[in-house]
Specification:
mainly alpha; 13 helices
Length: 285
Amino acid sequence: MKYYIYAMGAILCWASLPVATGSGLSELTTEELMFYSFSSAALFLYLQDIVRTKSVRVEFPGVKISLLGVWGIFFYHYMYYIALDNAPLAEGAILATTWSFWVVVFSSLFVFGRLKLSIFFTALLGLFGAGLVIAAGKDLAFNPGYIKGYLLALLCGLIWSSFSVALSRIRVKNEPMTAFTLYAAILSATLFIITLPHGMPSFSALLSACYLGCVPLGLSFFLWNRAMSGGNIVIIGFLSYLTPPLAVLFVAIIEKEVISGQVLLGMSVILAASLIGRVFMKKPD
């Protein structure tokens, strides 16, 4: 049970981003956002490690695992920010959300040694529910002119899902997320320097970037690693579909907005898919 609590903790971190930052990140370029957020994330996780381990030493994993961290932490987020710069937000977010679907699919292959059709179609149902939530109140139009952004968003789904499933398969002595985030911070700083000059962002933008670094990045990385290291990754994949509706719910509560029927329907579909998926986990096709 504790692994699913870790997973929900990470999901709540991600869902808190829209309500916590509002439009505070909109004035930052991709390179600025990467630099400020990953600097904050690396510092947060390093200080957390000092408190947990009573040591100032950072443990770096081997080359193969380090490359996995660069792939999942740095490359995913860089591609994600570029994707949303090259596609409308709703359409890009829907395509990027496919990572939840691929986590379920890939993990089904590992758990059962094959792709269970029942799991596959239930994962599609969860993806449909997430799409309903994200698209609520918006006129979706997948314009061919945004094909670059669409493809990058789909790539993001494959990157994070492959990283998450691989993370569940590795066994290292120490938490690897601090090292992964330090790699991302160094690479982000390199990008920041290469693309100089940059203007000084506003205080609200810096505050939003620091929140992004400490919670939806830093804390969520720690929790997600704990979840993937011991939980059933098929079930965790279904739980991750809850990120969009929870984000909408938080905004509605804080802004005192009415939640639309489409959002409620999407949430119901996601919950139904999660429950059905849990049943199918125990039954042969």
